[in-house]
Amino acid sequence: MNGIEFRIAKEQDLDAIVKMLADDVLGSQRERYEHPLPKSYYEAFQAITSDPNNELVVACLNDDVVGVLQITFIPYLTYQGGWRATIEGVRTATSMRGKGLGTELFKWAIERAKERGCHLVQLNDR
Fold first, then answer.
1. Residue in 26, 7, 120, 113 with CA at minimum distance from that of residue 68
2. Does this model's pTM top 0.85?
3. In the chain, which end has fewer C-beta atoms inside a 10 angstrom radius, N or C?
4. Which CATH number fits domain 4-123: 3.30.40.10, 3.90.180.10, 3.30.70.270, 3.40.630.30?
């Protein structure tokens, strides 16, 4: 997908991220997209960004945040102490749906998991 850049989310991206999280059937029932954003989103953001095994990643088109996902790297005793990656919170902006951005987000996350030495990638669908 041309022009899409992936990067670690910044605090100033939170408004766009929460808007995407709230913009579907499930999210509209559990998220609170309002101004100002509830403090809990900022607290969660700080917890994620301070944990080296969590990455909140955004997809940007020009200066606009148009996609998001969280990837968590988890150590296990199985596979001789191997690592797994869990992908969750995958969302795209309404204007980008049906254009392949979701596929690109997953490809990026799978490659990132490989970079971190993960032997398994799993998706949390809630």
1. 7
2. yes
3. C
4. 3.40.630.30
